[in-house]
Model the fold of this input.
Amino acid sequence: MTSRRDGKTELSTLLAANLDRLKRDFAWPANQSLIIRNLVIASLKRDAAVIYLEGAADIGEIEKRILEPLVGRTDANFKNADPVDAVRLELVTHRTGKTACSFDEIVNLMLNGWTVVLIEGVDRALMFETRGFESRQVAEPIVEHVIRGPKEAFTESASINRSLVRKYLRDRHLVAETLTVGDRAASEVTIMYVKDLADPNIVDEVKRRIREVRTDAVSSLPLLEQYLDEHPYSLVPSSLHTERPDRACVFLLEGHVILIMDNSPAALVLPVTLWSLVHSAEDHYMRWAYSNFMRIIRLLALFVAVMTPSVYIAVSTFHEEMIPTDLLLAIAATREKVPFPALLEVLLMEFAFELVREAAIRVPTVIGPTIGIVGALILGQAAVEANIISPILVVIVAMTGISSFTIPEPSLNVTVRITRFILLFAGAFMGFFGIALVIACVLAYLTTYTSYGVPFLSPLTPHYRSSGDMILRLPLHRERIRPHNLNPQDTVRRPERKSKR
Amino acid sequence: MTATTEEKIGGREFTSIFLIAVGMKLSDITTTILFESGQTAGWMIPLLSLGFMLIAYVVLMSVLKRRAGQGLPEIVFAIGGKFGGSLICLLLFAAALLMTAVTSRGYVDIINVMVYQRTPLYVLYLMLMGVALYVAHRGFSAIARISWLIIFLIEGAIVLLVAIIWQDIDWLRLYPWAGPGVLPIVRTGLMHSAMFGEIILATALVPHVISFKAFRIGSALGFVVSSVKISFLMAVYVSVFDYPEIIHIAYPFQQLTKNTSFGRVFTHAESFFIAFWLLISVIYFAFYIYLLAYLFGHAVRADNHRKLQLPMAGLVLLIGLVPGNTEQVRSYWELLMSYSTWLYWALPFIIWLLDWFWRKRHAKPQAKPQADA
Done:
């Protein structure tokens, strides 16, 4: 056992010494996960050991493809004189097989489910990929529901996820590069992109940021997302999680990069624009008119979710003349009995609503609906009857709440909710003047916010050529070019249709 | 590419800035003052000023075209030397600073008088300048991108306003069409050319625009469309309010929005328009704060003109608080207009002449190596 210059320890020719070292590394015998199976390779007449980690490796595969050939074969006519080559090339029937020389490499691979074969008198180890982590089957998407379209979602296994992406996008230029993050417990991150589409600068930037992550362990994508984030304090997300392989492929075809990791039932899409956050997976599965109708509804809902409480406060405190007289009188009549100022009323109600929402997420699923009924219906009704709030406010807060549920992306959802409170205070403080000032700030921020170098509101502003898939969309055959804000290498999606049918 | 680095802006974005920066004048005290001297023919004055200013603009553009990629400060420093360059930059800066201060005070007066009577003037002023400063601080690209984002909404809102008000318009109120007479109108148009001073000031920003062609098209288009728009809206003001009532209305645009209603239910839509107008004024003053810091930064040869934005906003605020009331604001405005008209008019010709001398002096040494070759 010798130490190399780079600090890695090389294997010894003594099987016992190597085994001791591995046992020490994995704290055996306290750690019962390390399984060592001693055996004699009959055909080579040498002692050997097969070592793997329980739970990480697939035992059936080891027995059938490694143990059986090693022990079962007795004839000794090998083409290769070197025992390692003889075992790897002529004995074992496993589909993989490579040699490793240092313990660091062996330990790292074992943690990822590989099996080691150590042979007496050889200072190299044979490694076979026998990954057998438990994982659930491909299931239906939970967050990104669609009525029409594929119903497969990513799972916690990176290899299944990669296979799903490859199933939907059978392109030879689809590249899957693997990097590792984490100094202590290294985990693999797969970067997938279409080589002749994605802007190399974006790909390099993503890789650079992944390499720069310095921490002990990154176990899943949501954590990695935060390590990669350029603006960690910003309210605006700079990447997007999707659990749908078909949606991931749509992004890949526009020149985005996706990241896939074990333990994360999603793909991380970078860079993102506002449009990718507000679009739903279903938009392109419906016909032109239907999907545009849904998009208009969602756009209005976005405005309602952000603006309604603040506009109500502004109008009822500063600009009463805007409300039709009859409605104004009706509001005044219901507000007569309420002792609180309008702002306090709205805050109370918004707080209650956020409470119901948070509670509904945290409680076990079985009692979830009860929260909704008790919280929303009974609380609202009782609050009005107790003259704590006016009925119009229940309408407004409920409208706002329902509208915010139409925003498909969870991060944007929170952004909208926080922005709503900021606008609420601005509206209560200075009416429309305050709202206009805050909106100016928000616009100034959003227009100059960039995600991996791509402006957040592009290709709308700053203007880039695109197929106009932003607020509305064109019919499929007219979406001819890819959005230029991502600087794709191949800009044309489909050739122009020559004749009108 | 981050938010803090300056990027070149495209032609559409630049045109939108111009449409906003010049077009805003249809809603402020400019129109009121023009009606005083122009009477029923007030609407012609912007067109006449446009004509006069176009001459200066064309002269300046001929110099700019020859020196591609250079803005006004770079050019004046190249042909006027250190002293001359600083002097011209400072002159332009002073004119722009006073104009911004007086104009912004006019805006704050409008907000104060029309909506927030009980809020102290300086509080409104502080908030407006604070937010404009933030927008300016996000960079020229922020101003440009917001402009492009909202330009269609703005123009749409104006069209909507005119459509709503259409039934109250009586075009016959424009008669007598020459107002106080042809000569006084032409004179007023000439003396108020400085209201389009942006066209000269904006040439400082040529290096920030993606190409000179985009700059030329953007500025010319924004300039002409805006003046026609102002002129048309002024005609609408007279046709709705009639002369001489119009000269007694302090803020015709805001008054016009007060008359709007959507059907019988929503009888008062002015807050809708006012909110929109407020948003645009923030962009407008952000543009000015950016421009002021840019000009001053070049005049004193500061490396980081972004850091000058805070003192610029403060200066505008302090100078803007000097006038005691709206009447004084107007008289300062008139005074400023007549002086800065000379500056904006003379400057392009001076620059052209200096450039001509410069080219004459530098032509020979350049010609020699060519002859040798």
